[in-house]
Amino acid sequence: MTLRPWLELARISNLPTVWTNILAAWLLADGKWEWKPLAWLLAGGSMIYTGGMFLNDAADVKFDHDHRKERPIPSGRISLVQAWIAAIVFLSAGFAMFIWGAEACIWLTGGLVTAVVVYDLFHKPWIGSVFIMGSCRTLLYLATASAVTGSIGFSTNAEVITKAVALGGYVTGISLVARGECMPHHEQTTSIEHRTGGRPLARRYHLGGCAGRKHSFTNDIGWIWPLLAPPPALAEKNHSHLMHTPRNIRRMKRIV
């Protein structure tokens, strides 16, 4: 067994962003250059991130078998059982390093690990999971800061909390854009029409995204519509109401 498939599974190129988030939160919380707790946080954050990436691919195995056969699990370089075991071990180790190594808040750290797991399990069927993705970075900031301050309160840690929330919002926005750009055109159409009950208005909101179509303003924002659209039953009710206005009824009688 070689190391390369595991590095690919872990999406290791993004790991430094975890380190910079931890260092920034440490400094914002007025942490001193105490290498022991900081090293525990960096190691624990790396373990949680890597475990989350393992779990991501383990949860997406059916999709990857159909659409991304080059990934380590569908290609057979790593088994599904190995990925699940590694995910559980890494997430548990990261949690332990934060709690017992760096003495971070157990509730914030638990919330971070929970957010990672929830995102991995539900990000494919639920577009709103991007907000969970943003909360992962917010909770990473706050858990790190709690290792310095012992507790987190807005009166004493306003700067850290504000910037942690801002980072979460930024990650959420980037994730929304990435999701919209890389969703195949036919999948966007299906998703949008399902959420809007097939209303003609919805059909204007399509993206070329990764297919390379020319973008316009409506193309760039159209994928947001499913988040805001009412459920199909309500959409159908509204559509029926519009169709049965007195003017439309007279028009239909003339046609008959």
Instruction: Give start-end ranges of low-pLDDT stretches.
Output: 185-243
- CATH level 3 topology of the largest domain: Tetracycline Repressor, domain 2
What amount of the residues lies in strands?
under 5%
Percent of residues in helices comes to: over 70%
The total beta strand count reads 0
Order of helices and strands: HHHHHHHHHHHHH
CATH superfamily name of the largest domain?
Answer: UbiA prenyltransferase
Shape: globular
Residue-averaged pLDDT, rounded?
A: 77
* Main sheet: strands, sense, barrel: none
Label the CATH architecture of the largest domain: Orthogonal Bundle
Give a structural overview.
- The protein has helices at residues 4-9, 15-28, 35-59, 61-67, 80-101, 106-122, 130-149, 154-182, 185-196, 217-221, 225-228, 232-243, 246-255.
- It has two domains: 4-182, UbiA prenyltransferase (Tetracycline Repressor, domain 2), CATH 1.10.357.140; 185-255, no CATH class.
- Helix 2 packs antiparallel against helix 3 (35-59) and helix 7 runs antiparallel to helix 8 (154-182).
- The chain starts with a helix and ends with a helix.
- Mean pLDDT is 77; it is low at 185-243.
- The chain has 256 residues and is an all-alpha fold.
- It contains 13 helices and no strands.
